[in-house]
Request: fold
Amino acid sequence: MSNTIAINLPDIGDFDTVEVIEVLVKSGQVLKAEDSIVTLESDKASMEIPCPQAGVVKEVHIDLGDTISQGSLLITLETSTQEVSTEATQEVSTEAKQDKTSEKTTQDTPTNTKTNSTQTLSVVVPDIGDVETVEVIEVLVAAGDELAAEDSIITLESDKASMEIPCPNAGKVASLSVAVGDKIKQGDEILQLTTQVTTAQAIATQAIAIQTTSKSADIAENLPETPKVQTSNPASQSASQANLQSASQSNHQAVVNVTPQAEFHASPGIRKLARELGIDLGHVKGTGTSGRITGSDVKGFVKTALTTLASSNVGASGLPPMPSADYAKFGEVETLELSRINKLSGKHLHACWLNIPHVTQFDEVNINDLEDFRQSQKAKGIKLTPLVFIMKAVAVALADNPRFNSSMASDNQSLVLKKYINLGIAVDTPNGLMVPVIKDVPNKSIAQLMADLIDVSARAREGKLSAGDLQGGTFTISSLGGIGGTQFTPIINAPEVAILGVSRSSVKPIWNGSDFEPQLMLPLALSYDHRVIDGAQGARFITQLNALLSDIRGLL
Ligand code: CAO
Reply:
């Protein structure tokens, strides 16, 4: 025999009215006792209302956005008050197909399910996908624990992913069959669970059987994807151990297969958590009642994503890592530990190179006049290298082109223009590259700059630079002119936006309009951040440098 009962909103505490923010059931849907019917939200909290009894939803009486209060009719539920029997199955099944002529509506409260007896069930490992055996890395329950359906019981880990296994039923843990470190597979027993067998639960089993035999289209549409339950002995009086094992397995299959991407059920708290973590819940498989997404599902999703990322062929930068090789296979090798400076500067240079869209603009400067002047000073015992003239020229060009003396604001939406000009000078030291900063360059003479350069480069090589010597730069010059090479592309020293590379000058035949003349040409390479500096601005900057260095009278 079956009844149609009304499920009303129970006492919800201090709230007079609450809003329906999610309807979790549909007409024809099979519910177990405690399955959530609706999510409600007041200005202070949100809550899910569970169904007090198992059965099949006959009609849903609420809609999204409804404002309801204690006693409001939520759903009508077809259920049975009889002991489960084959006849009962037939009877309810017939009613389900026949448009229900003899309905009896009774009021119900969340506490009126009847307890008949207890039974001990074996909870086993469900279908866990492609993996053969997995390791138990966490046992989340102990003998004697009272569990709600869907409480996580163990965490399993394969080489690809980790997953929490939910308990298919509510009950008390009678004994544990696994321990941390065990290797287990699908079908292995996890624990023994003592459950209360209620009339409602027995009916739920029957209801699944009814759905299986019914040809009704609207009921078929709501069939849970639990083929193993459907094919297991549906007419038995109480759920056998085999049935529950199947239920557990198919429950997991439902988790894998059922939830459509666009439709998912999750409480506001879980939705908020997902928003904070930037997770699209459409990709998370729900393991809660009716496929609801639980906190464990979200955590599991994140864990799996991180594990997959870590085990995938992708480095932290998002780039594929370089393959490692066994160099010793081909001959003798020696391993040389990188210096602390190598490690630090390497990390910084890598970040700069990856983060900044670099453009390098080249030019050659005729420095015949500069060289004549330099040699004349040398003859007087005054040492001046080309670099100090370059520093002076750069300071003038920076003053005229403030974008080159700027940094991108941290939100990448504006530029911080610096009203001071401090030049970082790359210095080659036995321990690696260092970049001391020579401050206030526009206000220093060529001679003073030379003295500063000698001082900082000496201290850099002796490891005697202070933290202050390395800070406050606005633009960097890297000069390899004393060593050699024709050109190179310097890496911008972020947060600066440009850098000048200087290579070794050499005498070249330059066409003067009628003849080739030997001229001393100095190669320059200007790398700039293309987010900050346009190509035309880069070309103008290097052209101005060229003019200043070709005719040094403006610098002296
Ligand atoms: N073309 C031709 N000759 C040059 C030159 C150039 N562009 N630049 C310097 N020289 C000459 C100098 O005039 C000097 O010769 P004289 O004694 O006859 O005048 C000689 O080369 C050596 O100069 P220097 O290198 O000692 O002095 P500097 O002022 O040019 O440079 C410093 C100083 C500290 C920048 C330099 O010693 C240095 O360490 N350079 C390496 C920078 C570096 O490693 N950059 C790469 C960074 S990215 O890895």
About this structure: The first helix runs from residue 86 to 97. DSSP finds twelve helices and 28 strands in the chain.
